[in-house]
Write a structure and sequence with these properties.
By secondary structure, the protein is of the alpha+beta class. The chain has helices at 38-48, 113-120, 136-146, 187-202, 230-239, 260-263, 334-360, and strands spanning 5-6, 11-16, 22-28, 65-67, 71-73, 79-81, 86-91, 154-162, 165-166, 209-216, 244-249, 267-269, 275-277, 285-286, 289-290, 295-301, 311-314, 320-323. The strands form six sheets. The protein has a five-stranded antiparallel sheet, with helices on one face. A hairpin with a 5-residue loop joins strand 2 and strand 3 (22-28). The chain is globular. The model has no long low-confidence stretch (mean pLDDT 96). The structure holds flavin mononucleotide (FMN). Residues 57, 111-112, 131-133, 136, 241-243, 304-306, 329-330, 333, 336-337, 340 line the site of flavin mononucleotide.
Length: 361
Amino acid sequence: MSHNTFGHLFRITTWGESHGPAIGCVVDGCPPGIPISDAEIQADLDKRRPGQSRFTTQRKEPDQVRILSGVFTDEAGEQVTTGTPIALEIENVDARSKDYGDIKDKFRPGHADYTYLMKYGLRDWRGSGRASARETACRVAAGAIARKVVPGVSIRGALIQIGNDFIERKNWDWEEVGNNPFFCPDAKAAKRWEALLDEVRKRGSSVGAVIEVVADGVPPGLGAPIYSKLDQDIASGLMSINAVKGVEIGAGFGAAALSGEGNADEMRMKKDGSIEFLSNHAGGILGGISSGQPVVARFAVKPTSSILNPRRTVDAKGKDTEISAKGRHDPCVGIRAVPIGEAMVAIVLADHYLRHRGQCG
Ligand SMILES: Cc1cc2nc3c(=O)[nH]c(=O)nc-3n(C[C@H](O)[C@H](O)[C@H](O)COP(=O)(O)O)c2cc1C
């Protein structure tokens, strides 16, 4: 009923609020014997961590993970999972609740203030409570474990659009993703985005973005033909991220404009006896089941709703008013959404890998 859990066999439950003492997560169902170090989890968390450039929120959270259970250092000195629940905890150390005092009785247009109050009859307005994307740090920590469940899989994400400014696909270079503050695979676009985001911030506004996640090395056969299709569950995982308003798999909405011939991912036998697809409009999923091609998903995030520029709204007493969100906010939430998207895809793939083995061996 409370819906804080995601997944079936590889299952995560997150807890915590933006300005509480800590946030955390329990990963249940992870197979035993998987090597996982604190540093591996921390490396993923460090990618999502706020305040790393002037283009993200200036909240300073070290996001130091503490593994409380579910791991054991084996005789070879390696930390491995035990098969029992893995509890992860991340302290909140830089909450500034007073920044929200002025707007605690007002509803930010585009945010969850109004709907939380309608649902629960009260809301934790400090830093947006549970509606804050602070919760997503837990998914990233869980995702670092999930990545290790499917042998040979590699999951990478990139920011491919900010506002109306797109990358050029011919410039795509995965190496570039780590070289700029946007996780952008196109060095030229990343350069343009610096000026673009500086201008957005100066105007007291915000901007949306599109993220692409590619999973290479996904074995064929993961997924299910009807309910719990692999693409359905990836869409569900990505859609569960704060501010996400659209998800595409493969050619996505663009497939509607293709002909049957253009969309067909033609197949050929290779000399080594394996099968080759000549294109990947399907995004690596056919009939809800992975084909062995790279799994490709994109998701769109809306512009941050907490902006400096005043907007019309109403307050909890039913009066018309205006709101201007002070405090520290991401001018483009899409940047930090990149590692979060990777984590959600990793969690879905780990879950489906275990479910596939459960049914098919
Ligand atoms: C990485 C990330 C950071 C975010 N930071 C902010 C923020 O600083 N200010 C804000 O108003 N919303 C931020 N959001 C979006 C809100 O959490 C989200 O819009 C809100 O919970 C309402 O949910 P919805 O947009 O999914 O309907 C962020 C989202 C993500 C993914």
